[in-house]
Amino acid sequence: MPSPSQRVLEWFGVDDTWERPRPVIGRQDVVLAVSVEAIGLLALELVRSAGGFEHTEVPLWTQWLAVSSGAALLLGRRRWPLTVAVLAALHMFVAGVTMPQVMGQMSLQIVYFVALLSGVAWARDRRAMVVVVGTIVLFMFAWIGWQFAVGSAAQEWIDEDQGTDQVGLFPPIPAAVGITLVVNAIYFGGAIIGGGVSWRAARQRDRLQAQATTIAAQAGRLRAQAVVDERLRIARELHDVVAHGVSAMGIQAGAARRVLDRDPDAARTALSNVEDASRDAVTQMRRLLGTLREGETHAPQQGRTTDAGVCDLPGLVAEVSGQGLTVSLDVVESQADAAERLPRGIGLAVYRTVQEALTNVRRHSTADTVSVVVRVDESHPTAYAEVEVVDNGRPRHGTSGSGLGQLGIRERAATHDGQVDIGPRVTGGYRVRVRYPLGAGT
From CA 103, how far away is CA 38, in angstroms rounded? Predict the structure, then answer.
């Protein structure tokens, strides 16, 4: 168990390897020094005008020099903290011996306090700080002790020769020196503790900033990796769709070849199907290549459901419903069986969007009701397929996600030139809506 002295040294960071950066003398240092000097000189003249310096014999210029030189020390309080602390201690001693009434002015007391506090707060070498500040404090209290000893002797002489009456528990002169000792203990102790608090706060801020930078960098890498993984997963699914299209072309071409001579109309129909399948396969392959253009790493194999589509949504909704969550599904078609005629890639995208949205509701929302609406309109030239998932809940505290699920929705929509609208509604709840254009090249 560490001793009290070890705890104190640890609190002041004696063995800490972190070094607080020392800024150059800046505008705020100049403003502070000039402000303290102006206020100090003004206060000096006000006290003089009130007759407070009747027993001060030093010249006026010396008094002004003491105030101005003390304020000038504040310029380097952050750049050279220990040097400024030593110079401030010497300034206090010299001014206290030669002109104690000037040294006792509030402006100079602020200078000495700030200088000592800055020495503790900004010193990079913590061991040197302990030595320097400890020496200053010992010197100052030795000086006060000397004054106390002299004050006690003087009081004994006054009591013996003049018989001064004692009003309180303590004789006047030792009482005056004693209260000086208490005030200085609070004064120096406050400066030292304040400096230690400032140093520890700066160290904590630096560590938090370093942690935030590390977390941001890691989040960026995870986000980039998630993008790559999602694109590769989409690419594999699209590959399956394209492979299906190529197989269909082969079957239709074979059928056309067999009936070409005896049934030209059937052959023409089969060749038309080949043309449609080839166009769809080329479009999907182009998107596949575009998806893979940034996929430089190998993603782990994941379970895929490349045959899923709008027709599979009832099963998904039934699986998610229950345990306090009611999910409704509506498929709105402008023409009969329009949803069944959706391209496989878009049908799969709609399915995955609903799947991810419902998963997010389960994990991160207080909702008890979810509405899933799929709209398919084949009217040209504005043909589209749209999926909308709306809930009535609020974000559940302590369950914030990584955002990778929504990132996957956006990536999948971008693959099909879709438009995404994700976010809270003004009337309450949360909405995920994705619209995919239909038509040539879909």
Answer: 16
User: In this structure, what CATH number is given to the domain that contains residue 326?
Assistant: 3.30.565.10
pLDDT digits (tens, 9 = 90+) for 140-150: 888 877 766 66
Q: For residue 288, what pLDDT is reported?
A: 57
165 versus 390: which is more confidently predicted?
Answer: 390
Residues 275 and 316 in one domain: no
Question: Can you name the residues that pair with 327 across neighbouring β-strands?
Answer: 370
DSSP-based three-state secondary structure for 278: helix
Identify whether the C-beta of residue 148 lies closer than 8 Å to the C-beta of residue 174.
yes
What is the average pLDDT across 8-25? Answer: 83
Contact 126, 13 (CB under 8 A): yes
Are the C-beta atoms of residues 123 and 48 closer than 8 Å to each other? no
Question: Residue 230 is part of which domain span?
Answer: 224-292
d(CA 225, CA 223): 5
pTM: 0.54
CATH of the domain at 234: 1.20.5
In a domain? residue 305: no
In a domain, 283, yes or no: yes
Residue 290: what residue type? G
| Structure confidence by residue, pLDDT tens digits, 35-79 | 999 999 998 889 888 887 777 778 888 989 999 999 999 999 999
CB of 290 closer than 8 Å to CB of 231: no
**Cα Rg of the chain (Å, integer):** 41
From 243, 258, 292, the end of a domain falls on: 292
**Mean pLDDT confidence for 232-256:** 68
Instruction: Determine the Cα–Cα distance for residues 111 and 369; give it in Å rounded to an integer.
Output: 66
Q: Which residues contact 330 (CB under 8 A, 6 or more apart)?
A: 371, 372, 373, 374
What is the tens place of the pLDDT at every residue in 273-308?
A: 777 777 776 766 666 566 555 444 444 444 444 567
* Pair (211, 333) in one structural domain: no
Residues 112 and 157 in one domain: yes
